[in-house]
Design a protein that fits this description.
With 132 residues, the chain is mainly α. It has 5 helices and no strands. Helix 2 crosses helix 3, helix 2 packs across helix 5 and helix 3 runs antiparallel to helix 4. The model has no long low-confidence stretch (mean pLDDT 83).
Length: 132
């Protein structure tokens, strides 16, 4: 019951991205891109980071910790020969760099739509390993 109340009060089942302002209109393809990759960022920086802390019996000061999250994924990668976790790291790094370009630029990079679609498809292919 406590989890239900926490999830209800905190809108934990709502997809969001801090760059998408409330009350403004966005095309569905833009929302797909931003929200799905925000879920990937949350997975790496929150869930994987906590799993790494539990695994190594240490505690992070901040709520988000990308370094610990990446270390956890690297541990998972080292335990498997053909690991999807390596692709998760690549997608995370791509989105972090690409979102900075989108934020700092008033014009989109050439052919960005095709690249974004390619990355979204790749994210869907690795979704089965996005749990800790």
């Amino acid at each position: 019951m406590r989890e239900f109340i926490y999830n209800w009060l905190n809108n934990s089942n709502v997809l969001y991205h801090p760059e998408l302002k409330v009350g403004e209109y966005y095309e569905i393809d833009e929302k797909f891109l931003y929200c799905n990759f925000q879920e990937l960022v949350d997975f790496v920086e929150i869930e994987c980071a906590r799993a790494y802390e539990i695994y190594n019996n240490c505690k992070s000061i901040s709520k988000r910790d990308s370094v610990s999250g990446i270390k956890y994924l690297e541990l998972q990668t080292s335990q498997e020969v053909d690991s999807k976790y390596y692709r998760v790291i690549e997608l995370y790094n791509w989105w972090i760099g690409y979102s900075k370009i989108l934020k700092d630029s008033s014009t989109l990079p050439n052919l960005s739509y095709d690249k974004e679609t390619e990355k979204l498809i790749e994210l869907m292919r690795v979704r089965d390993c996005l749990w800790t």
